[in-house]
Design goal:
two-stranded antiparallel sheet; GMP Synthetase, Chain A, domain 3; 28% helix; alpha+beta; 5 helices; MIP18 family-like domain-containing protein; MIP18; 174 residues
Amino acid sequence: MSQIFNPNPTIFAPVKSSKASSDYLWVTDPLESNLDGEEVDSEEPIDQDEIFDLIRSISDPEHPNSLEELRVVSAPQITITGNCVNVEFTPTVPHCGMSTLIGLSIRVRLLRALPNRFKIDITLKPGSHQSELAVNKQLNDKERVAAALENPVLVQTVEQTLVNASLRGQPAED
């Protein structure tokens, strides 16, 4: 990564999480026992704050900051309709060459954290990127995403962006 697309981004203070990590409903085993000891598949509802908490600490691939600190993602940019989660993100500059990588990192984080019943759509904020349609198409095409995740260098880069994702808005320990 020799070219820096935004050498001097604006950094914002993270917002305090409104929920304790134990409040997350899908972290527990989805197969719960009923009073008779039988396993019951329960579908727990989730909200935009829970999704935001999962992605807020993803690291930007160019800077030592989280996507939340760069205001690339925010809770109002997330919508949930039934089992469909739509995450809209805003690159820091309209010509950001890292937009596809950022979107892929968001997708991988949510695929790992959410139950399989959720459909995940990742899109750029309308008008925020010069190649908006092409990036959106790449991020939401199963075959393209699968092909990208077969590239070991790209997977390693995605893993680097996800190193602090489990912090959920908490500062990294030094």
